[in-house]
Amino acid sequence: MSEFVTVIGAGLAGCEAAWQLAQRGVNVRLHEMKPEKRSEAHHADDFAELVCSNSLRSDELTNAAGLLKEELRRLDSLILACADAHRVEAGGALAVDREAFARAVTGKIKSHPNIAIISGEVTEIPEGRVIVASGPLTSDALFEAIHRKVGGDFLHFFDAAAPIVTAESIDMDSAYAASRYGKGTADYINCPLNREEYDAFWNALTTAEEAPVHGFEDSKVFEGCMPIEVNARRGYDTLRFGILKPIGLPDPRTGRDPYAVLQLRRDNAQGTLYNLVGCQTHLKWGEQKRVFSMIPALQNAEFMRYGVMHRNTFLDSPRLLDATYALRADPRIRFAGQMTGVEGYIESTASGWAAGVAAACETQGRPMPALDRQTAVGALACYISDHTVTKFQPMNINFGIIEPLGYKIKGKREKNLKISERALAKIDSLKGEL
Ligand SMILES: Cc1cc2nc3c(=O)[nH]c(=O)nc-3n(C[C@H](O)[C@H](O)[C@H](O)COP(=O)(O)OP(=O)(O)OC[C@H]3O[C@@H](n4cnc5c(N)ncnc54)[C@H](O)[C@@H]3O)c2cc1C
């Protein structure tokens, strides 16, 4: 068996896996196809690119997403360290300056003496120990190679990214800073709509022209990243009860909650860019400009990036993988990241951490301590290997962690905190062995 481990893809999972291996003294060959070749959603040259939102979601210990982050911090995660170092204000969430964050990860990876970067597309699964972390937009040639290896059908669903506008182009006479229910600092820019404006916006949105995406149908959209136009078509008020919910966001000029509100979240540390929260879309670019500019605060908005939609691919993990992310039929090959069916930045990072540590333990001939279901990192790993993935419903944090850990989603703050404390104590006790 080779002395080094090959990691394919320098996204969130691949960088985390490479870092954990390298920190344990294992040599890594990290392959990345950018900048030579890019998926439709990747634009930047740096590693660990956040392709849509700049938020890694909640950072509070009363929920599973926050627990997962705290565990990863204590487990010396590179991604968490860089995210903490480049966070931007976002209430109780961990949001980052995406460029500074990606630059920091890239710098750390490139300067690690145990990591060799190999630029270019991988088209075959190499010999030796491998971690495939090529993400939901794995290149076609590698996709085919994986297909030949694992057989059967890949599962897939569709996902979309939200537009980003410049701060200076937001009409602040029509907007106001606030966070919902006045919690924390006023980190969001809120763009209110009255009834007539909402009506016009909804009508334009539901009839606007979409960009053609091969094989796309509304029924195959992942609920957690639903394009706003698909969501809007479900009913006149769907947006007002969802991403445009006005409750708890009174307009200081009237003292009342508006009819609907679009929130904008800071996208970089300087505060020069803002993303349209929840507005992932696959409308044609001209249509995006036309429709979103109907929101008064965005009437002169300058779009720095438009929303796009893509096919996302993932494996039938419960059938194919074990709880160390290894291929049951050929355990020298591990998968990590969204390709395993875990959905989201932080979940992808956690799977990269676990696959990297497992591969390091194996390379060094020592057992991988079981993290089991008492920890969020362990629950996710167990879950990928024993849950039945249903078509177009990838595993996400709600099912992957909340369910095995016994978290309650609503109104069980104290119970959840106890679960978190137990999980963190377990992490602390195992740290030396990992
Ligand atoms: C359009 C879109 C929007 C999303 N929005 C969100 C969101 O808002 N919030 C959230 O939490 N999650 C979101 N996700 C999910 C999130 O992107 C993923 O969960 C996470 O980035 C996956 O991490 P990863 O490391 O598995 O893959 P990626 O981060 O995609 O990294 C994979 C890397 O592999 C490289 N690569 C691919 N093929 C090859 C090859 N053949 N050879 C060499 N290199 C290769 C790619 O260039 C890339 O750098 C979104 C995903 C997509 C596609």
From TrEMBL:
Its EC number is 2.1.1.74. It is found in: Cytoplasm. It catalyses: uridine(54) in tRNA + (6R)-5,10-methylene-5,6,7,8-tetrahydrofolate + NADH + H(+) = 5-methyluridine(54) in tRNA + (6S)-5,6,7,8-tetrahydrofolate + NAD(+); uridine(54) in tRNA + (6R)-5,10-methylene-5,6,7,8-tetrahydrofolate + NADPH + H(+) = 5-methyluridine(54) in tRNA + (6S)-5,6,7,8-tetrahydrofolate + NADP(+). Gene3D superfamilies: FAD/NAD(P)-binding domain. FAD binds at residues 9-14. Residues 5-366 form the MnmG N-terminal domain. Keywords: Cytoplasm, FAD, Flavoprotein, Methyltransferase, NAD, NADP, Transferase, tRNA processing. Pfam families: GIDA (PF01134). Its main location: cytoplasm. Its cofactor is FAD. It comes from the Bacteria. Belongs to the MnmG family. TrmFO subfamily. NCBIfam families: gid_trmFO, PRK05335.1. Catalyzes the folate-dependent formation of 5-methyl-uridine at position 54 (M-5-U54) in all tRNAs. This is Methylenetetrahydrofolate--tRNA-(uracil-5-)-methyltransferase TrmFO. The lineage of its organism: Bacteria, Bacillati, Bacillota, Clostridia, Eubacteriales.
